[in-house]
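Annex B. Sample input.
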Amino acid sequence: MSTAEKSGACRIMLEEDTDTEQAFENVLAEIQSFELPIEATLRSVYDDQTNGHKKFMEKLDACIRNHDKEIEKMCNFHHQGFVDAITELLKVRSDAEKLKVQVTDTNRRFQDAGKEVIVQTEDIIRCRIQQRNITTVIEKLQLCLPVLEMYSKLKEQVSMKRYYSALKTMEQLENVYFPRVSQYRFCQLMVDTLPKLREDIKEISMSDLKDFLESIRKHSDKIGETAMKQAQQQKNFSVIMQKQNNARFGKNMHVNNDSILEEKNDIVLKHVLEEEAENEEEVLTVQDLVDFSPVYRCLHIYSALGDEETFENYYRKQRKKQARLVLQPQSSVHETVDGYRRYFTQIVGFFVVEDHILHVTQGLVTRAYTDELWNMALSKIIAVLRAHSSYCTDPDLVLELKNLIVIFADTLQGYGFPVNRLFDLLFEIRDQYNETLLKKWAGIFRDIFEEDNYSPIPIGSEEEYKVVISKFPFQDPDLEKQSFPKKFPMSQSVPLIYIQVKEFIYASLKFSESLHRSSTEIDDMLRKSTNLLLTRILSSCLLNLIRKPHIGLTELVQIIINTTHLEQACKYLEDFITNITNISQETVHTTRLYGLSTFKDARHAAEGEIYTKLNQKIDEFVQLADYDWTMAESDGRASGYLMDLINFLRSIFQVFTHLPGKVAQTACMSACQHLSTSLMQMLLDSELKQISMGAVQQFNLDVIQCELFASSEPVPGFQGDTLQLAFIDLRQLLDLFMVWDWSTYLADYGQPASKYLRVNPHTALTLLEKMKDTSKKNNIFAQFRKNDRDRQKLIETVVKQLRGLVTGMSQHM
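Annex B, continued. Sample output.
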């Protein structure tokens, strides 16, 4: 309660009790109680009542007197007791002094005895303090020792390169141990060293990762080689099992006559079994070849440090760089199969490592990342193979490249990478392979044709006969019945060509293997490639052979015979392909071989070349003609060059007996017509200015020999005098001049039944003018003989009439 509030209360009391004694008694009671400040009480006495001070003093004096009376009463009441107490106190005074002496002595003796106790007590206190300090130290050391042990363990782990464990130890130190000893200075020193230690571990692990990346870049080819080898072994094993199953169920792909391919397959299968048996204990995995611990360690370290994304980005970036390096081939990669093998093994090694990382780590490599990387790599691989394979001119190298691509594709397909685009590329390379095969076989065919003697194959024994029959499907009952020695109609090149066509089919089949294609597709590919061989290469080689200058008529005849037998053998080639693929020729979509048209075209070209060369040979003989165009009389016998020509034609047409009848007849007719034309051109040659009647008679003798040759039927099959008609123009022209039957010629000219129907007025005019000029020069004195004058006039008259006929013909044209 505040002072103002108390003053107010007193004032109220005085106002209420001003006229009574009770009011002053209350004031005195307040003063005696010492509970209220006296200043406020006194102020209320002086301030609130008139003459209150006087009355208060009176009342106060009365109160004092009352108290004095009470004190006196109390003293009187206690005085005797006080006296008694003093008396007793005096009595014990002496005892007190004695007691004091005893107490002093006892105290002295206690002091003396306590000095040793004090010393011992101080020792005990000191020991207790030491004991307490020791206990405290032990407690603190027990608290710090695990921290120190963990820190020591941390240092040991770092020194032993157990960085991930070291990071885990750091984490324990920071979360568990350091908070317990954070008040100590050494703890702060340890805490300060941990960030640097973490950075050191990051740098060391990153350095190890770089070494690992460099190591796998160098060893990618070994990894890829091992992976491809294992894929090849697995594939070979599957092929062996399939072959065994086919053999068990009687599903052989080749017939007995084609045992060469079966023997090759048996040898290959045996070699594969032996090789797999040798390498059975040497199966290595990628973990055996590469230590992946640096990757795991670095990944765990960065994960523990919370910087996993940085590590993933760095790893992927570096691997993409390595992928670009791996995908960049050497410029000479196309020169040898080893170059392609190194290229493929490095790529396989790269993606085998990535696949392993994908499956043993979480998030470092994802399937989307590997798919993106593979698509990028696949595009580059296809571009590289397209570019470099185009330089390959050796079919064996292209085939080995195909086998490498198949193994490469099968290996990566086994690791889950899509390889359909690679098999599509193989179809492009297949076309190139066929082109290289065609070029190679073009050279083979040329060599066969160059080495052939173009004469029937002589056979002296049964063994030789069987050898030829085993090479070429020839069937002729008449030849079989003949005794030895005998001859096949074809030359040595025919069985060789047939064998080489089969070898080409084998070679083309090799590329179709392992392409995961159906038998129908393989059959179609074989037939198309064989058609290209026949229509492009063999046909071209035959045409080039036929057109070579050194190929004579005998060789051309043999070529025609050869093409006939090769044409007949085409059905056996179709059977051969059918036996390989088990696709019947009656199938709707089966491609037919174009050998028939190929050999027909070659045969037609050879026939045309025979006609041309025969005419050229005739021209050579005709060029040997040496007529004396001014002779007075003929020699009475045919010219020597013509007789040689006829003898040559007879010998040639005897060779033609092996040709088809129509070919021989056409050649004979063409030769006679060309000979007739050449003789006619010789008579009408513009450089020949004069011809005597004796020369015409000699020329007539030569034409008679030609007619006799034509009538002797040098080639059978002509009806009547068909062949003699080739010389009908010459015959009528010579008869006209020999008989000098101009009146009949001029009278019957233009009549269908004319005796000289084939004599052209212009031809007759040209020859007659040559004879007229001769008459003028050689018969100088002809004008003095009447007969000669008449003859000359007749010639001039006939010339005028012939000129009229020629002019009339030119106007009608």
